[in-house]
Amino acid sequence: MTTAPTGILPDDVFYAWVDISGNNASFYGWTTDDIGYESYEENEAYGLERFGPYPVSGGDHLLTIRDALYDGCEAQILLPSPSPCSDGCTLEVTQGAVVCNDMGTQRPRVTIRTV
């Protein structure tokens, strides 16, 4: 019998909630070009937002938020990747007994063996 764990599954992802606020920031809100944020508006209001999904196998993710009006007004936060959320796959392979079937003939050349 042979077993082989595969490790982190590629479908493991994580999300993060981030509270975005500004001091002397514009009234235009904030923006980002992060792959984990799908915006339906040009600029977003300050407050609590969800980011992701990010692949767990990709490790930590650096998020950059910018003020929508003031150049140079930006902040970054490192979103730590969690441990894998699902167990890896394990396969077991067991060989059965070899069975010989001579198909009614005495000549070994036409012998078929099945496993």
Radius of gyration (Å):
29 Å
Strand order of the largest sheet: 3-5-6
Shape: rod-shaped
> Topology as H/E string?
EEEEEEEEE
Helix content: under 10%
Estimated share of beta-strand residues: 35-45%
Mean pLDDT metric: 82
Low-confidence stretches: 1-5
The protein's oligomeric status is single chain
Backbone structural class:
mainly beta
Descriptive notes:
- By secondary structure, the chain is mostly beta strands.
- Helix content is 0%, strand content 40%.
- The chain has no helices and 9 strands.
- It has strands at residues 2-5, 13-20, 30-31, 47-55, 61-67, 74-79, 90-93, 99-101, 112-114.
- The strands form 4 sheets. It has a 3-stranded antiparallel beta sheet, with no helix packed on it. A two-stranded antiparallel sheet has the order 1-7.
- The radius of gyration is 29 Å and the shape is rod-shaped.
